[in-house]
Amino acid sequence: MGGDAPKSPFAPKSFPALPAIDGIRIAAAAAGVKYKGRNDVFLAELAPGTQVAGVLTKSKTCSSAVDWCRTVLDKGKARGIIVNSGNSNAFTGKIGEKGTKHMVQAAADALGCKPKQVLVASTGVIGVPLPGDRISAVMPTLIEALGPDNWNDSANAIMTTDTFPKLATATAEIDGKQVKIAGIAKGSGMIAPDMATMLSFVFTDANVPSAILQKILKDGADRSFNSITVDGDTSTSDTLILAATGKAGNKPPSSPSDKRLKGFVAALDAVLTDLATQVVKDGEGASKFITIDVTGAANKKSARRIGLAVANSPLVKTAIAGEDANWGRVVMAVGKSGEPADRDKLSIAMGGVTIANKGEGVLDYDEAPVAEHLKGTEVHIEIDLGLGKGAARVWTCDLTHGYIAINADYRS
Amino acid sequence: MGGDAPKSPFAPKSFPALPAIDGIRIAAAAAGVKYKGRNDVFLAELAPGTQVAGVLTKSKTCSSAVDWCRTVLDKGKARGIIVNSGNSNAFTGKIGEKGTKHMVQAAADALGCKPKQVLVASTGVIGVPLPGDRISAVMPTLIEALGPDNWNDSANAIMTTDTFPKLATATAEIDGKQVKIAGIAKGSGMIAPDMATMLSFVFTDANVPSAILQKILKDGADRSFNSITVDGDTSTSDTLILAATGKAGNKPPSSPSDKRLKGFVAALDAVLTDLATQVVKDGEGASKFITIDVTGAANKKSARRIGLAVANSPLVKTAIAGEDANWGRVVMAVGKSGEPADRDKLSIAMGGVTIANKGEGVLDYDEAPVAEHLKGTEVHIEIDLGLGKGAARVWTCDLTHGYIAINADYRS
């Protein structure tokens, strides 16, 4: 299915050059899980002592790979990550569990570690048994190819309906030591369980204990991957992993709020947000990238929920696709969020122009700049609740004929 | 906007003949609120002593008409209902409140009752002040036209993006006395705040005190209007009113669970379900009518939430539009509902054929009858959670290019 849809208008002209991360070697290979003539397996070797953290789907029907990751993450350390595209191995029952174990065992054997030290993710068609032997068959090729610089190959190998690979990098200082962060991601629908799960793998040479890493990653995910939506659907396989080798040699921080971590947290946020917004920009059928800023909400959580209610509203998304400044649909979406809101305190701006203020439409607002703004590919909606200090930013894309074409006209 | 979209393939060839309800007189008139050359105001005169109940939108940004209805319903009695289409009078601030009061006062003066005895609803464009004088100007015409049989005119007058009027009727016995029920509804998106709110007005000659009426109506709404969805968006103006004149002369029931009410509750359910499914069948862009039966859930509430999560999933709705038996998307939607579910106990059937069973796809299921079923216009999805005894039925429609065309390609 991947490759059938036209390339996103937001596909970058060039890709960032990701740095080598001391302690990380990566590789991609073509196992023919489903796709022909392209890489579909990604292997990462993590140096001994690498601390890991993860944020996994909350779906009650998650895949066996997600179940496996949970037990590895509980230990806080790992030696490898193995990922395939083309088959999500989700809803495959006992056979699926066997497939996951087979894949993990093959990677562990190749890397010379224990299966419980290997994180795993699968993305692609649902309900079809994973051809695990094809993945184990390419292990020698992967081990041979392991190197510090194979970022592009790796980002391409994990793609499904994505129309471009997603890479991001940043640096920071912890206690005077420079640390590097490099990450890749895939995702195109927020989810399409037979093809478009969101996966992201982020690597750093920072020395951060896993418990602290976990807290930082969870908070960062809330501000990035948990603040985006394409269609409001949630994958059975969503997986975000952060691996920290410690090779930068910084003194480990004492807590998640340790001041020396401030720069690292900001750099990690930058990488996660960069990757997350790339996923939205590759959203199925997206023609507009929409940033929604919510302020004045009862609290931060409420602000994010209101932002996501607006971002998920089919009527708001189709209005933006139609370049229609239909603030009435924004009001409706705020109202249905179930969060505290007062109709007579609510204000809405598009492209910086206030078009509804304190419960009433601004009848004589200047329409020309708003119309011009909506004709562009990046749309900004600001919602002020006028209630408290809660603020959040979320991102989404518009809902177009392209989404219907990808998800209804094509058959799986 | 109404009339621009092609007529729903589910538009009925003929309409039921609704009976006169003793104590109810109705009329429609053309006030030119927004539409030209069609009726856009509906007036109902309720005999003295008529008991009323209502279910109103839970939106936090509801219209002033909804606020007004709340205070009338608190008293349990009313003498009139005044409704306009073409302007929802929502998000119009203090001017909006004035518009509502003007409309209610005009109807009260015409009917010879107090404003607090008049229920009101407005549907149409949002954020534009209501031209209340146009509505008061047609009051003499409405009073003149009041009669027991104007059901078709009335159902047409409240339409916005609807492509057909919605009418339903049933009879029952209470304590040996025959009682009649007649209802009309409008709605085409679950909501499009500038045009497609859901409104329904149901009338009966049964003698039922308002407190009991309220409980029966709330329960009935949960099984009907609260069990349908087109796009998951919620109107700022959704209004369901039940008016009972008492003219049938039955002895009033003593409680909502009074056994003598059993037939009446079933007949009311039939009318509400008939009207609610007509709204789905007129859903924007609908080409398939989808019935989702959830069984084996932890409880009834959980079953309904799971059903609605599936019904609201853009990926499920586009799969059905594409006639694709993509049960993986159903699994995904069950998983994201947040309700208790066990991947390994879940079973899914389409068109009566089990295609996923106890956590695994049925690899050799008979595809031909399922493909044939999906080619039809009425699709049946059954989901068994295998956990408890909770069951619910919900209805939705597919998500097609037609929905995008109505909501993005057309401008308001």
From TrEMBL, chains A, B:
<keyword id="KW-0028">Amino-acid biosynthesis</keyword>
<keyword id="KW-0068">Autocatalytic cleavage</keyword>
<dbReference type="GO" id="GO:0004358">
    <property type="term" value="F:L-glutamate N-acetyltransferase activity, acting on acetyl-L-ornithine as donor"/>
</dbReference>
<dbReference type="Pfam" id="PF01960">
    <property type="entry name" value="ArgJ"/>
</dbReference>
<feature type="binding site">
    <location>
        <position position="160"/>
    </location>
    <ligand>
        <name>substrate</name>
    </ligand>
</feature>
<comment type="pathway">
    <text>Amino-acid biosynthesis; L-arginine biosynthesis; N(2)-acetyl-L-ornithine from L-glutamate: step 1/4.</text>
</comment>
<comment type="similarity">
    <text>Belongs to the ArgJ family.</text>
</comment>
<comment type="function">
    <text>Catalyzes two activities which are involved in the cyclic version of arginine biosynthesis: the synthesis of N-acetylglutamate from glutamate and acetyl-CoA as the acetyl donor, and of ornithine by transacetylation between N(2)-acetylornithine and glutamate.</text>
</comment>
<dbReference type="GO" id="GO:0006526">
    <property type="term" value="P:L-arginine biosynthetic process"/>
</dbReference>
<dbReference type="GO" id="GO:0005737">
    <property type="term" value="C:cytoplasm"/>
</dbReference>
<keyword id="KW-0012">Acyltransferase</keyword>
<protein>
    <recommendedName>
        <fullName>Arginine biosynthesis bifunctional protein ArgJ</fullName>
        <ecNumber>2.3.1.35</ecNumber>
        <ecNumber>2.3.1.1</ecNumber>
    </recommendedName>
</protein>
<comment type="pathway">
    <text>Amino-acid biosynthesis; L-arginine biosynthesis; L-ornithine and N-acetyl-L-glutamate from L-glutamate and N(2)-acetyl-L-ornithine (cyclic): step 1/1.</text>
</comment>
<feature type="active site" description="Nucleophile">
    <location>
        <position position="197"/>
    </location>
</feature>
<keyword id="KW-0963">Cytoplasm</keyword>
<feature type="site" description="Involved in the stabilization of negative charge on the oxyanion by the formation of the oxyanion hole">
    <location>
        <position position="124"/>
    </location>
</feature>
<feature type="binding site">
    <location>
        <position position="284"/>
    </location>
    <ligand>
        <name>substrate</name>
    </ligand>
</feature>
<keyword id="KW-0511">Multifunctional enzyme</keyword>
<dbReference type="InterPro" id="IPR042195">
    <property type="entry name" value="ArgJ_beta_C"/>
</dbReference>
<feature type="binding site">
    <location>
        <position position="197"/>
    </location>
    <ligand>
        <name>substrate</name>
    </ligand>
</feature>
<dbReference type="GO" id="GO:0004042">
    <property type="term" value="F:L-glutamate N-acetyltransferase activity"/>
</dbReference>
<feature type="binding site">
    <location>
        <position position="407"/>
    </location>
    <ligand>
        <name>substrate</name>
    </ligand>
</feature>
<feature type="binding site">
    <location>
        <position position="412"/>
    </location>
    <ligand>
        <name>substrate</name>
    </ligand>
</feature>
<comment type="subunit">
    <text>Heterotetramer of two alpha and two beta chains.</text>
</comment>
<feature type="site" description="Involved in the stabilization of negative charge on the oxyanion by the formation of the oxyanion hole">
    <location>
        <position position="123"/>
    </location>
</feature>
<feature type="site" description="Cleavage; by autolysis">
    <location>
        <begin position="196"/>
        <end position="197"/>
    </location>
</feature>
<dbReference type="GO" id="GO:0006592">
    <property type="term" value="P:ornithine biosynthetic process"/>
</dbReference>
<dbReference type="InterPro" id="IPR002813">
    <property type="entry name" value="Arg_biosynth_ArgJ"/>
</dbReference>
<keyword id="KW-0055">Arginine biosynthesis</keyword>
<feature type="binding site">
    <location>
        <position position="186"/>
    </location>
    <ligand>
        <name>substrate</name>
    </ligand>
</feature>
<keyword id="KW-0808">Transferase</keyword>
<dbReference type="InterPro" id="IPR016117">
    <property type="entry name" value="ArgJ-like_dom_sf"/>
</dbReference>
